[in-house]
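Changelog excerpt

This revision adds worked examples to the README so contributors can see how folded entries look when concatenated. The first example is reproduced verbatim below.
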Amino acid sequence: MMLMLVPIAPLCAQEWDDDFALDTDLDEFEDYQEFPDEIRAGVNERVKTFDIAGLMLGMEMDAIREAMRERRYTLKDTEFSIPEFFQFNYDALCRARNIFLPDALRGCIEGFGKTEKMRYMTRLTFERPDTKETVTVFLTSPLTRNRVWKIDYKNDVDDKPGPGINFQYQREERRRAFWFSVIQKYGEPNVGKNQWVLDANEEFSQNLKAFFGRLILENQQAHLADVFETQREARRRFKTRDFTF
């Protein structure tokens, strides 16, 4: 279908007509690239090599900072936390010291976390303002060396500043260009229309999901293994009174 733009002022005032709109469903791209609906059995080994903005799953802090520096991303925000079962341990220790008021109890728990080096950076967000891109990196605990288990990338491809058909047209072209660049970098999805999975037959397998203006690369197995390890270690360290009976 040929789209002809008339002068800008009438376009801005006109509401977007769904009958006139470009098809925004992923089926639009089937003329250019085949996207099978069914899950294809087997292993896609390439998923192991995937990166987003130079970041890869399993990276440690020094490599993260170097990759972001090379691509001119700057640190925007960080988040710290203590694994849940370690918080339970510290809660018991603090209460044993007769610390019960919420603020004091919270401070005591944080103090134990810092002392035992279990209060750690769980998330970092980097931004590249000139291209309106952000990358959020999620890390495992110190027990598994603070490695990347999830990368969440976003840009403004899907933004639409107004209802005019000029804005709709511009967004469709940004979407199209973004999707083509995704296929060019990662190849054809092997699960559905927008997922690349290391092993399509294995639950929680390492995978990449793509949306308009967003990419999520994650290894749920690494995350779950870290959660299991923190629970196991917290139970091992839990302190009780010595009973004499």
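The second example, added in the same revision:
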Amino acid sequence: MPSFAHSKKKGDIGEKIFKEKFESTGCKVIMAKRGNFSSWDMVIMAPFGTFSLEAKYDEASEGTGNVCIEFECLCKSEAHIVGYAFPDGGTYIMEREKILNYAICYPKKRWVGYPRRPAALIPKQEFIKLHFVKPI
């Protein structure tokens, strides 16, 4: 079972990937303060608007073929957008409410992570084809 430190490290990887990706397109990125729980990971100031983002890095998807969508995390988040990054370099964004509602209704669920939390396991090829999931 992964430790909290391992889960935190994966979260940091996701944050770094999305920060660099948005900054490389000229967006201004404001990161949440470290050490405090924040209801989002970063705020993106783009030419088309400003939005908050919850960043995820799904390392296990490479071996399992599934994207893990944790309900509790997305329920607590107040981010407008969720970003998922994968070891193969793929990055995708979607509205938090849409992926949360989809995951809650998804039939394949497991207890994952540390501490153990319920999650939907969606095959990656199905996930990236969802109409509200956008590659970036």
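Reviewer comment on example two: The longest helix spans residues 4-24. The helical segments are 4-24, 61-64, 71-76, 96-105, 124-127.
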